[in-house]
Design a protein that fits this description.
The chain has 155 residues and is mainly alpha-helical. The chain is built from 7 helices and 4 strands. The strands form 2 sheets. The chain has a two-stranded parallel sheet.
C-alpha cells in the first residue's frame, strides 16, 4: 500500500515472485469511469473506490495467497481489503513527497498523473504503530525493499 509513485507495482511483482504467489495490480481492476476521471486529473472519491475495493477483496479471497498492489489509503479501505482475515498483511511503502513527485514526473503510459499526488497524500491515513502493517522506506532500491519485507513477514 502507499500513494502513487511509491513502487507498489514494482515491489509487488518482485515480492510475489519471491513468495511464489500470484500478483494482482489494483490499477488493472479500476472501472473505466475511474480510469477516465484520473486521466483527466480528477481525484477519486470514496464512492468511486468502494466497488473497486470490494472487487479487489473478492479477487484476493478467491486466489488464496496473493500479493496485491493497491493504494489502500485509508484504514477503512484496509478493513475492506482484509475482510477481517488476520492473515492479511499490509506493507506500507513510505516515501517523501518530493521523491514521489519525481517518480511520477518520469512515469509514462499510466493514467495516474502527477497532479493527483496531492489528493492522495491528503487522503492518506498512515498505518498506526498498533497495526500489523510493515512499514518500509520506499526510497531504497526495489530489491532492498523486498528483502526488508521478507525479513519482517511472520513465519
Amino acid at each position: 500500500m502507499g500513494v502513487a509513485g511509491s513502487g507498489k507495482s514494482t515491489v509487488g511483482r518482485l515480492l510475489a515472485e519471491r513468495l511464489g504467489w500470484p500478483f494482482l495490480d489494483g490499477d488493472d481492476f479500476h472501472p473505466a469511469e475511474n480510469v477516465e476521471k484520473m486521466r483527466r486529473g480528477i481525484p477519486l472519491t470514496d464512492a468511486d473506490r468502494l466497488p473497486w475495493l470490494h472487487h479487489l477483496r473478492e479477487l484476493v479471497s478467491r486466489s488464496g495467497s496473493a500479493v496485491l498492489a493497491c493504494s489502500a489509503l485509508k484504514e477503512s479501505y484496509r478493513r475492506i481489503l482484509s475482510g477481517g482475515d488476520p492473515r492479511v498483511r499490509f506493507v506500507y511503502l513510505r516515501a517523501d513527497p518530493a521523491l514521489l513527485a519525481s517518480r511520477l514526473e518520469k512515469r509514462t503510459g499510466h493514467f495516474f498523473t502527477r497532479t493527483l499526488l496531492d489528493s492522495q497524500l491528503a487522503a492518506l491515513e498512515e498505518p498506526t504503530p498498533a497495526s500489523t502493517a510493515i512499514v518500509v522506506d520506499a526510497s531504497q532500491p526495489a530489491e532492498a525493499v523486498v528483502q526488508t519485507i521478507l525479513a519482517m513477514l511472520p513465519g
